[in-house]
Amino acid sequence: MSGICEGRVVIVTGAGRGIGRDHALAFAREGARVVVNDLGVARDGSGASNGPAQDVVDEIRALGGEAVANTEDIADWQGAQRLVQTALETFGTLDVVVNNAGFVRDRMLFTASEEEWDAVIRVHLKGHFVVTRHASEYWRLQSKAGAPVDARIVNTSSGAGLMGSVGQGAYSAAKGGIAALTLVEAAEMGRYGVTANAIAPAARTRMTEEVFGDRMQVPESGFDVNDPANISPLVVWLGSGESRAVTGRVFEVEGGQISVADGWQHGPSVDKNARWDPAEVGPAVEKLLAQAPPPAPVYGAQ
């Protein structure tokens, strides 16, 4: 198979089902060799199975592509290191990391447990960091040794991370952290030939089917806006050589729509050139808020 990612080696985490599966297949159709990582857990992160990752590998091979399964825990330091090593040992190099794996344990803040918070932050935020950490070390060493590097990091944030989502405090915090982490990765790794971007996808997955119910149903006819395969073309392009001039961006993508998210910016300001008296702060803040655009509403807010 040939395409815009011909010959590139790609790791896709959480690639056994849903959006990640479609990413893996789409990369393979564009000529990439794919490491299909999936722990095979349930929606809430419980259990494990080798089946989903191997099933996707079998699909890719049936298409005539090259792929290998990996079932490491991406939030485990050594596990993530072994994942990167799997790409290097199997295919001889690594060009793209697509951080996609995750699960949800939705709770309101006043009912969430410490274990639920820690589990969600671990798989999303730490999982994104640890895999990227080991891949980045490899790319930096390659660059310093004089080898050409044209690598990509594609992270998975969420509208919940950009706007917030009622009942998803841990998930929103983790996804917001991923957006910020992406900016740092772009700033730190650009000198070594690596770009970093993130997506905030909206599609039908095990997570969204339970939360949004009927809105995620497959239509009887016409374009399926919620098909997870709609997300993958952007991710494949971001993983290709064609995207080398794009870095430090967060893209929202749903159905056939792609948009660039406009993150935190320095807004209106006032400088007294002296220390404020608390009684003076209120009127000053009122003026600032009158000049600033209103914030986007939190998903699920009344």
Mind explaining what this structure looks like?
With 302 residues, this protein is of the alpha/beta class. It has one domain: Rossmann fold (3-Layer(aba) Sandwich), CATH 3.40.50. Helices cover 41% and strands 13% of the residues. The protein contains nine helices and eight strands. The protein has helices at residues 18-29, 51-62, 77-91, 114-144, 159-163, 169-189, 206-212, 232-239, 278-291; strands at residues 9-12, 33-37, 67-70, 96-98, 151-156, 194-202, 250-254, 257-260. It has an eight-stranded mixed sheet with strand order 3-2-1-4-5-6-7-8, with helices on both faces. Helix 1 (18-29) links the parallel strand 1 and strand 2 (33-37). The longest helix has 31 residues, at 114-144.
